[in-house]
Design brief:
Elements (H helix, E strand, L loop, with lengths): L2 H20 L5 H11 L12 H13 L25 H10 L21 E6 L1 E2 L12 E10 L8 E9 L3 E6 H14 L19 H18 L3 H5 L1 H8 L3 H13 L10 E2 L3 E6 L1 H62 L6 H41 L1 H35 L9 H5 L3 H4 L3 H7 L2 H66 L25 H4 L6
Parallel strand pairs: 2-6
Antiparallel strand pairs: 1-7, 3-4, 4-5
Helix pairs in contact: 10-11, 10-12, 10-16, 11-16, 12-16
């Protein structure tokens, strides 16, 4: 190739390296060392590489892969066009960068953050939240119950109100589902950094059915008590008004005030109990976010399976109880046949068989009743528990997604701006750096071109300020995601312990009842003279048993909300 073509190719390769290495936020000195290791005899000379080889080398340098190069031709013969006086500014720039030693990551200033493996920590003052009585009471607990149907009029629909009791304060208010829905929307708006607990979805069909109301109350109670575990949420004036303000008109006026508030536009407008927010970027938080994301996406399908298994267990116990009732009724029919025989046949009468049939009738129906008790325990301790626990992954997933989005947007903007500054610095056209003219007049431009780090702090001030805002927002949400996720796991542990302590207690009591039931049966079958004592009231069937209320759709296998 002729000299002109050679110089054009060299410039193309140099521009490629500026875009990929410097623009990508990588260390030029480290890249030079990488090239020298691949080609010890002049690897840092751009002329010894073809364009295809540079593309392969850059890809491997940034990904850690092993480059696939033709090692038999390490020294490629290139035309020799030595023009020291025409050496480009880009080459001078690389020579300057090569003199900067590479160091391990350390706490960075705001212009030094290149990727999430760099460390950046900062504390900033923000809006302090006034403490509420809830912050000073560690044993506060909220109960949602006593549903009441409020019938609608000509133009108003019927709805359910729930009594919300906060202990130990004994605040009692009445709230409808739309009030709970409003509260969560308000908290989500005002605290975008927090993982707001979930509530049931809005649903009109079947909303007045007893089982639906019972399950909704349980979920709303979980929502309220989950909020109590966050210091900022229970200090919120609207959360306090929700549990404390018993005047309906005043409460509605309060919600209108809440509706007028806007989501915090600046980090300094964020509300924290101590009036201080922590911002942090670092490899430890990056690794944590990766593992937390894996945890959520691996756990969600498992919780969904547990919900499915819990429903199946309900179906199994329902079928078992029906089978036991059928067996009890069959023993009852056997008793009637035997009793009829004994009444009409003076010869060969044997009333012991009547007693046996009647006793077995009572035992089987009572056993079926105990299986219904199992259904209630499974409904509360497994089905409802895993349904709500499964829904708690959604705010976790959204928080991690928000963190990733902020990280991607910040790093993309940062690298683009760094590349723009790098190129502008190489070109040396200070007048195009958007530095205010009055400030520029006070500077020695020649000295400015000798101090790249200082020059970077002055270049493109509006874009630099935007970069810093994006960095701080990401750093804040990065640390908050870690804090909230850790608190969420701790809460889940507490929920498991509390739920399965109650579940074990209920199972123990129910199984003790079954044990006593059959122990009595054993004793009486061992002594025929005692058989009649097990007959508690004649024949029994399922009509004598009060069956707990269950969602028929759930028992049919549907996913009821």
């Amino acid at each position: 190739m002729d000299e002109q073509e050679f110089l054009a190719l060299r410039e193309q390769k140099q521009q490629f390296l500026i875009n990929e290495i410097i623009g990508g936020g990588h260390d030029p000195a480290q890249f030079k060392e990488y090239l020298d290791n691949l080609k010890p005899d002049g690897g840092s000379n751009v002329d010894v590489w073809t364009m295809d080889e540079l593309v392969e080398v850059v890809k491997c340098f940034t990904t850690g892969e092993q480059p696939n190069l033709n090692t038999e031709n390490q020294q490629q013969e290139q035309p020799s066009y030595n023009h020291p006086e025409e050496e480009t500014k880009v080459e001078e720039h690389f020579k300057q960068e090569e003199q900067i030693p590479f160091e391990k990551p350390k706490p960075r200033t705001m212009s030094e953050i290149k990727n999430e493996d760099d460390t950046y920590v900062r504390c900033v003052k923000c809006q302090a939240v006034n403490r509420s009585p809830l912050n000073d009471e560690t044993d506060a607990e909220i109960y949602v119950g006593d549903p009441e149907l409020i019938k609608g009029g000509l133009f108003t629909p019927s709805y359910i109100v729930y009594k919300v009791t906060t202990k130990p304060f004994m605040w009692i208010v009445k709230r409808r589902f739309s009030d709970f829905f409003w509260l969560r929307a308000h908290l989500t708006k005002m605290y975008p950094n927090l993982m707001i607990p979930p509530i049931p979805k809005k649903k009109n069909k079947g909303k007045f059915e007893n089982e639906f109301i019972s399950r909704r109350m349980a979920f709303l109670e979980k929502f309220m008590n989950s909020c109590l575990q966050n210091e900022e949420l229970k200090a919120d004036q609207f959360f306090l008004a929700f549990v404390q303000m018993d005047d309906e008109k005043k409460w509605k006026a309060k919600t209108k005030v809440g509706d007028s508030l806007k989501r915090p536009a600046k980090l300094e407008e964020t509300e924290k109990l101590d009036g201080e927010m922590v911002m942090k970027i670092g490899p430890d938080l990056k690794e944590f976010a990766q593992h937390a994301t894996e945890f959520v996406y691996q756990s969600e399908p498992l919780y969904k399976k547990m919900r499915k298994f819990s429903k199946q267990l309900l179906l199994d116990f329902d079928q078992i109880s029906n089978t036991l009732f059928n067996m009890g009724e069959c023993f009852g029919q056997m008793y009637q046949v035997s009793n009829n025989f004994n009444k009409h046949s003076p010869m060969g009468q044997n009333y012991m068989l009547d007693d046996i049939y009647l006793t077995l009738n009572n035992l089987m129906v009572s056993w079926g009743e105990q299986m219904l008790g199992e259904m209630k325990i499974v409904q509360q301790g497994l089905s409802n528990f895993f349904k709500y626990s499964h829904s708690e992954f959604e705010p976790m997933r959204e928080a991690l997604k928000q963190r990733t989005t902020l990280a991607t947007e910040f790093m993309k903007f940062k690298r683009a701006l760094d590349a723009k500054k790098e190129k502008s610095f190489v070109l040396g056209e200070v007048s195009k750096w958007d530095i205010p003219s009055d400030k520029l007049k006070q500077m020695n431009q020649a000295d400015l071109l000798k101090d790249k780090e200082y020059a970077f702090t002055l270049m493109f001030p509006k874009e630099t300020a935007q970069e810093h805002d994006m960095r701080d927002k990401f750093a804040y949400f990065n640390f908050e995601t870690f804090s909230e996720f850790s608190a969420g796991i701790s809460k889940k542990c507490k929920d498991y312990l509390k739920n399965f302590q109650q579940f074990a207690k209920d199972q123990s009591e129910n199984l003790s009842s079954v044990h006593i039931h059959w122990a009595d049966g054993l004793a009486h079958f061992a002594d025929a003279n005692l058989l009649g004592q097990l007959k508690t009231g004649g024949l029994k069937d399922r009509t004598n048993v009060a069956k707990p209320e269950f969602d028929e759709k759930l028992l049919a296998g549907a996913d009821a909300d």
